[in-house]
Amino acid sequence: MRYDKLINGYKFGSFSCVTKNNKKLKLGLIYLESFGRCIPSFTTNLLKSNSIIVSQKHLKKTNRIKCILTNSGCANTACGKDGIKITEEICEVLASKLNVRKEEILVASTGVIGVPLPKKDIINYLPQLISSLSDSKNSVVKFAKSILTTDTEPKIVYRSFDSKNILCIAKGAGMIAPQLNLYKPHATMLVFLLTDLSLEKNLMEEIMNNVVIPSFNSFSIDGDTSPNDTIFFVSLDEKPVKLTRAEIKKLYNVIKNVCDETIRKLLFDGEGVTKVVKIVITNCPKKYAEVIAKTVSNSLLVKTAFHGADPNWGRILAAIGRSGIKFDINKVDIYIGRYCVVKNGTSNFVDDAVVRKVMLKNFFEIKINMNLTKAKEFIFYTTDLSKKYVDINSKYKT
Amino acid sequence: MRYDKLINGYKFGSFSCVTKNNKKLKLGLIYLESFGRCIPSFTTNLLKSNSIIVSQKHLKKTNRIKCILTNSGCANTACGKDGIKITEEICEVLASKLNVRKEEILVASTGVIGVPLPKKDIINYLPQLISSLSDSKNSVVKFAKSILTTDTEPKIVYRSFDSKNILCIAKGAGMIAPQLNLYKPHATMLVFLLTDLSLEKNLMEEIMNNVVIPSFNSFSIDGDTSPNDTIFFVSLDEKPVKLTRAEIKKLYNVIKNVCDETIRKLLFDGEGVTKVVKIVITNCPKKYAEVIAKTVSNSLLVKTAFHGADPNWGRILAAIGRSGIKFDINKVDIYIGRYCVVKNGTSNFVDDAVVRKVMLKNFFEIKINMNLTKAKEFIFYTTDLSKKYVDINSKYKT
Asked: Which helix (H) or strand (E) is B252 found in, with range?
């Protein structure tokens, strides 16, 4: 493969300009030289972007795709009753220009809710977008930049798998608390997980269910699940390769690694984020662990204590206590880093200054041992809450 | 009644100092000249202050009380296995000094979780606290100040009821999302609702269940339900007055009015609060309305948009959509002030500048019409999220 190429069979386009109405327009295009096989995952928010509704409609007809059109700045959500029609019309024009069926086109949008897609502008600039298509690494970077909103840097993760390649391009900095289901909607995280392997549909669904979705559902920046969250997992639509058990295991690991690295990038580039915290819940049934982890993760008092490196573990214990799960709080142990700050539901009287040192780092771990039952660890990632987050999100129609 | 007296039969004491270990100690005492009848309500957080555990124990033995001892600066929660014993020992000393049974003493604490009560200091200063008891208005103000933590001003609401009086003293600025049950725990809001009427226990319970608890459960500052929330509703323990139906109705109204005014004071003095927002959910079954109202109220994106007077209603609609309730989002209408910004789940294309004017006020209303079924309006109050909130709560062990 050429030194400046990351993946075979894909081209990447992007285009940005300021329109006549003084609005910023940013378009992106992922194009398959032949065709791709796509397994999607969308937000579970009842409010759904028209881009998701149209993509779902198209995917119902065929899993074979030619391209993915993206825009940032406008969520294409709740923007009037013509929203779906406008989205379809744009797909039709793009389809005719690429000489494919409109069902072979997927769309993904991110930005402000309530603003309609600028149909005329998008259609006008499609030729320029198409002519920008290229398979160079530079075009991948430009595409990754075209989907950003409040993110400060493009998120690209690449791994090789034998002679083949796995490339993940993502965006998302706020309204991040993914709740994804296979074939069901989830939002403002956009993830394009691409490979030049040709994988069987069943295997792709398995990987999506067992690796990709659990990974992307395991972190939260602000607890606000967006109506636009989308993952498109795409492989080449050729005769599927036969993989041995060992190869499948290896593929799982590589993709898990790609997802984890992508999430790390999303977390550290979260709106106003200065710290990422790993929450580990042990000895607790998964369904409870999930509720407890999310209650702790989304607590304003916990997040602000993280921000100030304040070893105020009482806020963590109080969040566990109000989570709605019934259990014996006198069994709970809490560790901050390697220090056990709560033993049997009460203070272990560890020196605050020592614990504070752990919390001054930009990444640390909180372990909550519920001592309920033997169970697999449940891991969830969260961030601190800073004044910058408030600044970014209190601005007039960000 | 003397011009400087608010209520008969009660005395109020307070004492504050800096202890030898350089810690601030603030004590308060509500003392009944004869005896009081008390109906309590506590936090539903599984984590409970030792003050609540001890008060619950005492109230199990008798509803007749002599006094309520308060402290601020230390929550008396999760502070070691001797916490309950220490609390009881303090009650015992106070009981002997007042020549009453320790079961006739209630306690309430607010402050940092994990710090044990400074037993020796408290016991040392009890004589000074007792000698400060007085029935003057000035002593009420001093007591109200003694229970404050991050609050900036004392909260006292007074109403007359015929020749009798109702006095409410409260504190609470953060960790405020009351979830109270009758006789069950709820936290860091402390409310002392006192009357010099003598009411029947049954009527007091009815008022608590129908007026006081629903009122105090209908607002949130940060979604963090504290392990210390306490309401003590106290009337004089004399022969109960016989009230006519009309008088009872009037009493309900006066108490509702006292609660609403107290909540208004708590909201506007919330940590870093610059705006209070009334959320009204219409045409929606109560159990759904509650979940929707709380999801909207606690959304970081909604709260920061409130702060910036940003008419970004998409965040409200997205919060409704991720609340977990199943319904048809295409039926939802949203009003900001009198402007219908969302009609049938999509933009009503109202000029942002007009809506922004409503949101620039320090109090405004959001109405969410779910159009599901005829039902009573559900009302919930929330606040904005400011940089000052982050500032206050990221400080080292606030």
From this structure: helix B245-268
